[in-house]
Amino acid sequence: MPSDLTTYPRPSVAVDVAVLTVHGGTLNVVTVESPWGAALPGTFLHPGETLADAARRALSTKAGIDGVEFHQIRMFDAPDRDDRGWVLSMAHCAEAPTDSLPSGTDLLAVEADRPVEPMAFDHADMVSAAVGDLRSRYLTRPDPSHLLGTTFTLLDLRTLYETVFDRSLRKDTFRRHVIGALVGTGATTSAAGGRPAELYERRPDETFAGSIAALLV
Predict the structure, then answer these.
(1) 142 with 174: CB under 8 angstroms?
(2) Burial 95-117 (b: 16+ CB within 10 A, else e)
(3) Looking at the DSSP assignment, which residues form a beta bridge with residue 156?
(4) Statement: residue 132 has pLDDT above 90
(5) pLDDT, average across residues 195-200
(6) How far apart are CA 217 and CA 205, in angstroms?
(7) pTM for the full model?
């Protein structure tokens, strides 16, 4: 006879979402207030919900964020991670331009791959995992999360990559590495001052000639 599932102890299941953005030239993560300090938007899974349903609800009700794409990173399952009891949390990550976030959104700066201040539970570890996931996707494609607008200069793109990877990148080497994945629009901008700079767009589904990792050694 199959075992009755009610005979097994059941943990509570939660979701938490790390929304990363670039603000003031620094990588930041969206936080919300909690009795345990700054926390990621999160919630417990309701009956009949999928994890994605719960993550979407957490973003909307806790942070006022709707319509962003997110995906799972991994399960955080340390038995003592929550002092209220046995709680498993599926961490998700998302990225969004700062100007697309609701006014008054709380942001916490991230240095290297860690938040600069303590966070509730193991949420700082979730942020680190989200930063790692972000970097893995930025290795081979030009700004896949569209943190920049539809058009941008090479300086804009290089500055973004220096922020994401937390290190300086040589101008000429970076240009040679990424230019094949971009297409010039023929338009220019003088927004940064100095000589007009050409505006580029991403080539659809185009990848870099090689991994950005080659520039990080």
Answers:
(1) no
(2) bbeeeebeeebebbebeebebee
(3) none
(4) yes
(5) 92
(6) 26
(7) 0.93
Q: DSSP secondary-structure letter at 152?
A: B
CA–CA dist 39, 58 (Å, integer): 12
Rounded CA-CA distance 176/64 in Å is 40
DSSP 8-state secondary structure symbol assigned to residue 3: P
| CB contact at 8 A, 110 and 127 | yes
Q: Which residue has the tokens 């100095």?
A: 194
What's the Cα-to-Cα distance from 122 to each of 34, 37, 43, 58, 143, rounded to whole Å?
13, 12, 14, 17, 28
- Burial (0-12, 13-18, 19+ Cβ within 10 Å), 136: exposed
Instruction: Quote the CA–CA distance of 82 and 121 in Å, as a whole number.
Output: 6
Residue pair 139/212 in contact (Cβ under 8 Å)? The answer is yes
